[in-house]
């Protein structure tokens, strides 16, 4: 078990978040003495604003606006030229704390956020999302993604539409320095926050290095992602207590020098 910050200086962590979302986590890791390797396996790209603006003009018809991520907040507001008035006619729900913070920073009040489980399942557990019969909900998210939230709300009697404001793409580059680090044992942990990012990681790492990659401890943010990593072949998997950067950092430190599975 690693005991001190000085010892952590010998450890490197592969941070796979999109470039714009990775810096706070990298800084927290570096403040603890760890070396953060920035290796984004997702790129976030805005969708065409034309169709988005048409939907934004009709927000008043919805009881609930449900934001899936901080990216959903930022890209929706950007598509609306930063104007927030249109969003104030509806009740607003956020899947997690980061999404809530993005809304609050933009001047939008959040009426609903899960008390503990900051994910789709946590939101669906709330009393408000169990009382949606004959209510209209607009889920604001990236293109594609899970259908669990919409399907469950529809089963509970809600009318559900999507507003997709960005897409997730695999970056078109390969960082050879990361390959060299893997070959020499220079990657001591990996942080992972989505299934799509995990799939992209395997696609971006040379096939001949996959067996090496599977032996590196990986820190994920949900049990669902843990099962996915396990099915892919990862041997040492830890689940952070929450998707927040501080919780991921804590989980990384706990993994250093101690067996996880």
Low-confidence stretches: none
Instruction: Bin the strand percentage.
Output: 15-25%
> Would you identify the CATH architecture of the largest domain?
3-Layer(aba) Sandwich
Shape: elongated
Predict the CATH topology of the largest domain. Rossmann fold
Number of helices: 12
Mean pLDDT: 91
Outline of the structure:
The chain has 261 residues and is α/β, with parallel strands linked by helices. It is built from twelve helices and ten strands. It has helices at 5-8, 19-31, 49-56, 70-79, 97-105, 120-124, 148-155, 176-183, 195-204, 210-214, 223-232, 245-255, and strands at 12-15, 35-38, 43-46, 64-67, 91-94, 136-142, 159-169, 189-191, 218-220, 237-239.
Kindly describe this structure.
The protein has 2 domains: 121 residues, Rossmann fold, CATH 3.40.50.10090; 125 residues, Rossmann fold (3-Layer(aba) Sandwich), CATH 3.40.50. The protein contains 12 helices and 10 strands. The strands form 2 sheets. It has a 5-stranded parallel β-sheet with strand order 2-1-8-9-10, sandwiched between helices. Strands 3-7-6-4-5 form a 5-stranded mixed β-sheet. It has 261 residues and is α/β, with parallel strands linked by helices. It is elongated, with a radius of gyration of 20 Å. The mean pLDDT is 91.
């Amino acid at each position: 078990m690693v005991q001190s910050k000085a010892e952590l200086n010998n450890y490197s962590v592969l941070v796979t978040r999109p470039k714009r979302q990775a810096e706070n986590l990298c800084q927290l890791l570096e403040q603890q003495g760890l070396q953060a390797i920035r290796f984004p396996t997702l790129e976030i790209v805005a969708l065409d604003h034309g169709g988005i603006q048409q939907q934004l003009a009709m927000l008043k018809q919805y009881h609930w606006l449900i934001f899936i991520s901080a990216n959903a907040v930022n890209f929706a507001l950007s598509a609306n030229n930063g104007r927030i008035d249109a969003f104030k006619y509806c009740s607003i729900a956020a899947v997690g704390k980061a999404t809530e913070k993005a809304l609050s920073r933009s001047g939008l009040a959040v009426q609903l956020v899960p008390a503990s489980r900051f994910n789709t399942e946590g939101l669906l557990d709330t009393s408000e999302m169990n009382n949606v019969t004959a209510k209209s909900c607009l889920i604001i998210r990236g293109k594609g993604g899970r259908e669990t939230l919409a399907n469950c709300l529809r089963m509970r009697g809600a009318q559900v539409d999507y507003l997709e404001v960005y897409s997730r793409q695999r970056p078109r580059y390969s960082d050879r320095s990361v390959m060299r680090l893997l070959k020499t044992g220079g990657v001591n942990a990996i942080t992972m926050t989505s299934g799509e990012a995990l799939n992209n990681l395997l696609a971006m790492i040379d096939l001949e290095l996959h067996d090496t990659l599977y032996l590196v401890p990986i820190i994920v943010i949900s049990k669902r992602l843990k099962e996915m990593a396990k099915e892919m072949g990862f041997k040492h998997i830890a689940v952070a207590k929450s998707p927040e950067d501080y919780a991921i950092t804590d989980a990384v430190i706990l993994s250093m020098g101690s067996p996880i599975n």
